[in-house]
Design brief:
Largest sheet: none
Strand content: under 5%
Order of helices and strands: HHHHHHHHHHHHHHHH
Number of domains: 2
Shape: elongated
Number of strands: 0
Radius of gyration: 35 Å
């Protein structure tokens, strides 16, 4: 019959009713217990965070959380983490709760404090971060776990280990709390200033092709010597260190690690590796041969390290620039060898020698070739694939090149 509603005539089971009531009571008790715990965490976090409120009249402006009692610093970080958990809980319970607004204000206070701490550690300890060599830095900071006494032979190692761990702790906390951007901006600004200053002290400057091409050779030779003295340190100390620093401090985010290293080092690395290319494309003469080979040797020897340090896709342009410089330098050497051959032929025809006499240019050629022997490996790489293009006619030069090819 339409509209007829059938209901059970059997009364509810007392046991079922009791079970439902008991379940509701347990759930309510559990919920109340959870709220109580979160409120306690919120209160405890407030007590600790407020002690380090930058806007509070009760704290000394010269005090720093991470340069004093490490236990206090640990409690602060734990409080922030607990505060974050409490915020998530209260949001799930009631998105309009006043407790959420209160917790957000506390979080802002905490993040403002951590920003100041992060900036202070990076700026106050920049000499410490730059003091230890890249290899030592890597061995001391590759793990966030405690380092044994055996691995800490000096006070400097203890100090840098502490500094690195503090930076990582703050970065992890700020990123997980949604304030990663503020942390990263501070890091990029301060570390980029260190890289810029170091490159300036190494006398690595940016030049245009016209500047290099018009430069007197004596001046350019000094620039090349300065570059050769700086490039190994720049790669194996400066850039390697910055890569390891960003890798360690921002372990929690590969994207942030890459972004930091790229923004801090790419511009200066390009300036560094562009210089050899500009030299290679500038005026060519026999007096420039040996310095060109020195540049070729330096970049070629360092290229495996360059590939490792600048392995990120965002810094591929640095690897490309290094390869371009090597190729251009090789081309320049081949061109100078060809010019050398042509000048020998021209001089021989201009001043013929009769009888069994020795041509005046012979001594010059032999001395020049003897110096080239010191660049056996470099010349082998450069000429091995281009014996036909050189079209070398001089017996002496041909002999030297053939020996280099055979050694290759």
């Amino acid at each position: 019959m339409r509209g007829l509603i059938f209901t059970s005539s059997k009364p509810p089971s007392p046991s079922n009713s009791f079970a439902q009531t008991s379940s509701m009571s347990t759930h309510s008790h559990h919920q109340t217990f959870s709220v109580s715990i979160m409120e306690e965490d919120l209160l405890h976090a407030e007590q600790i965070i407020k002690r380090w409120d930058l806007d509070s009249p009760f704290y000394t402006k010269l005090d720093y959380l991470f340069t004093g009692d490490q236990q206090e610093a640990r409690q602060f970080i734990i409080s922030v983490n607990n505060l974050q958990s409490a915020m998530h809980f209260f949001i799930s319970e009631n998105a309009n709760s006043e407790k959420i607004i209160h917790a957000q204000k506390l979080m802002q206070v905490a993040m403002k404090r951590l920003q100041k701490e992060f900036y202070h550690i990076l700026s106050a300890h920049r000499d410490v971060l730059n003091y230890v060599s890249a290899s030592v830095l890597f061995s001391k900071t590759r793990s966030s776990d405690s380092v044994s006494d055996e691995d800490n032979p000096s006070h400097e190692y203890d100090q840098i280990t502490t500094v690195m761990k503090d930076l990582k702790t703050i970065a992890d906390c700020m990123i997980s709390s949604g304030y990663g951007k503020e942390c990263v901006n501070i890091y990029k600004i301060l570390r980029k200033s260190v890289v810029d200053e170091t490159m300036y002290n190494l006398r690595i400057e940016k030049y245009s092709f016209n500047q290099i091409n018009k430069m007197n050779w004596n001046v350019l030779e000094l620039k090349i010597k300065s570059w050769l003295n700086a490039v190994k340190f720049a790669v194996n100390s400066l850039f390697s260190r910055e890569r390891m620093l960003s890798d360690y401090v921002f372990t929690s985010s590969e994207k942030i690690r890459e972004s930091c290293f790229s923004e801090i080092c790419t511009e200066r690395a390009l300036v560094l590796f562009e210089f050899p290319e500009l030299v290679a494309k500038s005026k060519k003469s026999m007096e420039r041969m040996f310095k060109t080979l020195d540049l070729y040797s330096a970049v070629s020897d360092l290229f495996p390290d360059i590939e490792t340090i600048f392995e990120f896709e965002s810094v591929a342009v640095v690897r490309t620039q290094a390869v371009t410089s090597v190729v251009k330098l090789g081309n320049a050497v081949r061109a100078m060898l060809a010019d050398f051959e042509a000048s020998i032929q021209k001089e021989t025809l201009k001043t013929p020698v009769t009888g069994a006499g020795i041509h005046p240019i012979t001594r010059y050629v032999m001395n020049y070739l003897l110096v080239l022997i010191y660049y056996t490996d470099e010349l082998s790489d450069i000429v091995a694939d281009y014996p036909l293009q050189l079209q070398i006619q001089s017996p002496v030069t041909n002999l030297i090149v053939n020996q280099l090819i055979q050694r290759k």
